[in-house]
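Following up on my earlier thread - several people asked me to post the actual chain instead of describing it. Fair enough. Here it is, all 376 residues.
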Amino acid sequence: MQEKPARIAIVGLGFGAEFIPIYQRHPGTEMAAICQRSEAALHAVGDKFGIAKRYTRYEDLLADPDIDAVHINTPIPDHAAQSIAALRAGKHVACTVPMATSVEDCRKIVELTRETGLKYMMMETVVYAREFLFMKSLYDSGELGQLQFLKASHQQDMDGWPGYWPGLPPMHYATHCVGPVLGLGRHQAEYVSCFGSGTIREEMHSCYGSRFAVETCHIKFKDSDLSAQVYRSLFDVARQYRESFEVYGSKKAVEWPLVEHEPLVVHTAKRPEPEIPERVVCPDFAHLLPPEIAPFTTGGVYGGEAGGEHLSFTQGAGHGGSHPHLVHQFIELLHGRGEGYPNAVQSANITCTGILAHESALRGGEIIRLPDFTLQ
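Reply from S.P.:
Thanks for posting it. Predicted structure:
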């Protein structure tokens, strides 16, 4: 018997619109509805992609019995409330990062998934970027040897971004660097110690009561001899945008490039010194996807064949080609297959690591343990 497609609604059509054509072509989904407060934007996107069912009110969307799951792509302050409302309305949830802005809201989401049996997945792009998937393949195959240390960063200049962004504590939006260090071996953070460094402009200090330009956190892994270091900046730090991840194993180490879009550097032990490092251009890992959406891993305008049909599109290849992988993992989760990493508990562990890291920085680096609900 043919599997019933999961009926998906996308909420927030800025970044969220990039996922529409992927859902439309995925064999396990029906792109059922879209939701956007701006009626003009709603109809522009709906007309472009041929989506008939459109909502300007989130509450009306949640009341629709013909929607199985929502994919939330709204501003950070709305993530928790909208995820909680969706779970209470009987909908599965995929939500862009971070899961929430408080430990308590993370707890509520985890509890709701346990009470309802509904699925939650935080759509963390880095853990499905081609660079991460390359490192994960080396780890899973044993080529890295014994893991010894992990390090990640996310540096971005957010000057000029409106709304809630000015003065945001760096670790409140840390999932892009916390996610890969925990995700490689599917570890959990047990406790953190974080230090703030430098000072952002004084007019931003009052926004969140934070002055740090950079926050650097050490993470101790649960039931492991491993630890990791992550660092994050948002304002008044001169640096090109960079998401990075470095993995140091006993046999091989892999380093994300210092400049975006350059090849990875792989270091192999026991070679003659000049031959230890080599530059590697990693593949897109499109083979992990259904053929209908595999082309979305590439950038630019794609023209090609999938399932006998000619394709031409530009959407969906952002964030290291992660978007189609995120969609496929979520749909597999809804159909009872795969792990849907990160699920609700894993997402809470990743998100709370950042939230509590900032608390640690405010307390001068004090060790803070992750709550039990993120470790189960």
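Residues 300-316 have pLDDT under 50 and may be disordered. That should answer part of your original question.
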